[in-house]
Amino acid sequence: MKLEQEELWHHCKAFMPTFWMLGCAYYTYEDMEPGSRLIMFTQTLVMDLDNIRHFYEGAVPEHNVATMANVMRESMLRQLHVVGRMRELKVTEVEIAALTTLLLWDADAARNHPNIQKIGACERKKIFDELGSYYRFVLNESDYAARLGGLMCLYSSFQ
């Protein structure tokens, strides 16, 4: 099945913010020490939770700097909490790839697009089948329900 241009555009717009959040969390998980108050905002931009104000100084009117910094701080604290959960799970690259693809084919993001829903349902089945094989044969975990549940909790954080 081939998606129309409008469907592709809808799908891309729905996925990009989620992909950015997952990327930030994964870069932080991989590149920052546990307990760090630094967040990889992009592959080349690190945000310091204790010095957010400097990110906005000179870019927004001075009376808005504190407000903007507080909004960003709340977002970063949530992101650090998610990174902590990734560390507890010791999420693997394969699980991150699966999580990324599951988020790409999120059923709710496509609720008004039957073609996207149909493709997404097939893709999600493939992902879960592959994850089951990965857990059983690569990680040698026959009882992987708790691990998969942890991954799905991360999924809900990025939705």
From TrEMBL:
<keyword id="KW-0804">Transcription</keyword>
<dbReference type="InterPro" id="IPR000536">
    <property type="entry name" value="Nucl_hrmn_rcpt_lig-bd"/>
</dbReference>
<dbReference type="Pfam" id="PF00104">
    <property type="entry name" value="Hormone_recep"/>
</dbReference>
<protein>
    <recommendedName>
        <fullName>NR LBD domain-containing protein</fullName>
    </recommendedName>
</protein>
<keyword id="KW-0675">Receptor</keyword>
<keyword id="KW-0805">Transcription regulation</keyword>
<dbReference type="InterPro" id="IPR035500">
    <property type="entry name" value="NHR-like_dom_sf"/>
</dbReference>
<feature type="domain" description="NR LBD">
    <location>
        <begin position="1"/>
        <end position="159"/>
    </location>
</feature>
